[in-house]
Amino acid sequence: MGWGEEKAADIWARWEIVKQIESNEAEFEHHFLEYALSAIPYHKPGDRQEDWEAEMLNWGVGAELRAAIMDEGYTDIRLTESAQYWVQDTMEIRYLSLERLQRESQMRAQTSATSTNNAASSNNAASSNNAASSNNTTSTNTTSSNNAASSTSSTVPGTLALYKAIAKDRISKDPAGKISIDSLLSGTPSDFRGAGGSTLYFTPTLEVAEHYRGYIRRRFNGAAPLILQLLVTNSFIEALPPFILRFGDVWKEIVFTSRRGLLLRGDLKRIRRLPLIIAPIARSHNRTISSLDDHHQISSVRHVLYVKDSEAIQYVFQGEDMVDRLEECGEVRIVSQSSTLAS
Question: In angstroms, rounded to a whole number, what is the distance separating the alpha carbons of residues 304 and 183?
């Protein structure tokens, strides 16, 4: 997961005690991931955290994870959150990947056992199916070509493509294999939400999503992180309608308040009721936004994300109703999961 050897041994020893007690009392209230993450100290809003390396070392975080989190190539992303956030996020990703591998191993074992028990009937079926397969080759290729054409036509003018980087094991799918938009919701605090609510963040620029994916991959390369594409019609976006917020005092105050984990007050409360906000993405230069004294210390040079010399933009969808509408009217698909693409 990323704990140092001594800390990992201590957590496991304590976990064995918890398991024994709960087993004796027939009460299973803890999950190992939850228990392991409880060793991460609570983050207090406004904590300057001037020496992340020393703090993580003091918590017992291993050298490999500390180096990954502190990679200078991703300082602009790292300083949008706390040290606690990135340690927890990375450990969750790694643990979820381990759970997936375990499930896949069990499924392979079950499949292998089933195949062995039915070997004779499978061989007989294969002989008859080979002939049918030869006859159907032409129709199969035609179907594949039609699917590819349909995929290409979905991005013609009139449709907006938005992107999001995410760890593979954070997404969930329904029984039909469709990606659940609920699994893409962002936690708080974030740029436009201090606490509570349902918020989805996407970007219209693939290069921006690649930058975020690079930081996920840097912290865990065990499973290639994904880039998802959300397709919605322009008419859907225009009907909301979107609230376009450019960099300025209002943007500064909203981001500063939200990043501190606080609720917006006064006239700014209306922001929470907007279904879609289009605005620049926040970043941090050498201090987290939440540790600044006030929003007047925020500047476009230090606190607005630029990728390849272009201002990075985010589409912020808000509210459970908005999530439901996107489930109905939007299409989410994986557009990239190769670990070899440039970040």
Answer: 27
Cβ-based neighbours of 151, under 8 Å, separated by 6 or more? none
How far is residue 62's CA from residue 39's CA, in Å, rounded to a whole number? 13
Taking a C-beta distance cutoff of 8 angstroms, is the pair 251, 242 a contact?
no
pTM, two decimal places: 0.77
Please tell me the number of Cα atoms within 13 Å of 1 on its side-chain side.
26
Nearest residue to 180 (alpha-carbon basis) of 324, 322, 321: 324
d(CA 247, CA 49): 26
Instruction: Copy the structure tokens of residue 237.
Output: 């976006």
Q: What is the mean pLDDT of the chain?
A: 82
Give tens-digit pLDDT for 195-229: 888 999 999 999 999 999 999 999 998 778 999 99
Find, among 36, 78, 29, the residue nearest to 211 by Cα. Answer: 78
Average pLDDT over residues 104-109: 76
Q: Which of 316, 286, 317 is nearest to 299 (CA)?
A: 286
Cα-trace Rg, the chain = 24
Residue 162 dihedral angles phi and psi, to the nearest 5° = -120, 155
CB 39 within 8 A of CB 58: no
What residues contact 254, with CB distance under 8 A and at least 6 apart?
A: 191, 192, 245, 264, 268, 271
Q: Which residues, in sequence order, are CB contacts of 301 under 8 Å at separation 6+?
A: 285
Higher pLDDT, 249 or 144: 249
- Name residue, tokens 């006064």: 266
Q: Around Cβ 289, how many Cβ atoms within 10 Å?
A: 26
Residues 6+ apart with CB under 8 A from 258: 188, 189, 190, 191, 192, 193, 194, 264
Each residue's pLDDT tens digit, 165-185: 999 999 999 888 899 999 999
Helix (H) or strand (E) holding 332: strand 331-336
- Check: CB of residue 253 under 8 Å from CB of residue 297: no
